[in-house]
Amino acid sequence: MAEKPEDLNLPNAVITRIIKEALPDGVNVSKEARRAISQAASVFVLYATSCANNFALKAKRKTLNAADVLAAMEEMEFERFLEPLRAALEVYKKGQKGKKEVSEQKRKEKEKKADCEHEKSKEDEEGEDEEEQRMEEETEEGEEEVEN
């Protein structure tokens, strides 16, 4: 848990970026206003987390999930956030699925490459064995000729 209440605040850079994205170009926000928005956002996040945690506890779980957060938004009477949150969640899931597919594809390619290298080294070993066998046969033939 946080040692000081300030540790629970969101990073200033994040708050500044969100504010800039929300306001039209040319609008300035004072340092005090940014701080107030940061504190309000932090309180909102803590409250939403607490409400979502209550839903998880009722379900006898220790892990919060997206359904808990959506239920918390509804309980907190922030229904207007539900659709944007669902849309953002869907985008996130698609992104994760895409990353998983790319990761799986890379893993398969790596395995295929390792298999190819393994087969190549196996073929090289077989080739070396054949070469050694041929050389031994030539040596034996040479020794037989010397004996005759």
From TrEMBL:
Function: Accessory component of the DNA polymerase epsilon complex. Participates in DNA repair and in chromosomal DNA replication. Forms a complex with CHRAC1 and binds naked DNA, which is then incorporated into chromatin, aided by the nucleosome-remodeling activity of ISWI/SNF2H and ACF1. Does not enhance nucleosome sliding activity of the ACF-5 ISWI chromatin remodeling complex.
Pfam family, one: CBFD_NFYB_HMF
Gene Ontology cellular-component annotations: CHRAC; epsilon DNA polymerase complex
Domain Transcription factor CBF/NF-Y/archaeal histone: 9-73
MF terms in GO: chromatin DNA binding; protein heterodimerization activity
Subunit structure: Component of the DNA polymerase epsilon complex consisting of four subunits: the catalytic subunit POLE and the accessory subunits POLE2, POLE3 and POLE4. Interaction with POLE4 is a prerequisite for further binding with POLE and POLE2. Heterodimer with CHRAC1; binds to DNA. Component of the CHRAC ISWI chromatin remodeling complex at least composed of SMARCA5/SNF2H, BAZ1A/ACF1, CHRAC1 and POLE3; the complex preferentially binds DNA through the CHRAC1-POLE3 heterodimer and possesses ATP-dependent nucleosome-remodeling activity.
Gene Ontology terms: biological process: DNA damage response; heterochromatin formation; leading strand elongation
Biased composition (Basic and acidic residues): 98-123
Renumbered residue ranges of the record's region Disordered: 93-148
Lineage: superkingdom: Eukaryota
Subcellular locations according to the entry: Nucleus
Ranges of biased composition (kind: Acidic residues): 124-148
Protein name per its UniProtKB record: DNA polymerase epsilon subunit 3
Keywords in alphabetical order: Acetylation, Coiled coil, DNA-binding, Nucleus, Phosphoprotein
PANTHER family: DNA POLYMERASE EPSILON SUBUNIT 3 (PTHR46172:SF1)
